[in-house]
Target: 3-hydroxyacyl-CoA dehydrogenase
Amino acid sequence: MSVHYQRHGDIGVIQINNPPVNALGHAVRSGLVNALKEGIADANAKALVVLADGRTFIAGADIREFGKPPQAPLLPDVITHLEACPKPLIAALHGTALGGGLKWHSVATTESRWQEHA
Model:
């Protein structure tokens, strides 16, 4: 299970790999925040892309965390970091995008975010 950042040319790629469905567990949420910070700090990255390995994007919450005390960062905290990203942010959704995974659509396609870079 991992989330990592890597740059390809002038595009920063944040890649989620949490089989089988890339659930948004604590490690993924923390990894997303850390990878996003790394991408923002990368002066050579002009835009950031978030993608997920496997057959699906983020397919919702991690059921292994149900009934347990929540651990920061919570999904709203992650979304706040994404919305504050100063660089264009693209989410490459594929397969199923459920729950928190579907929230990415609104974060990555907010019109006002793109107007700053037009």
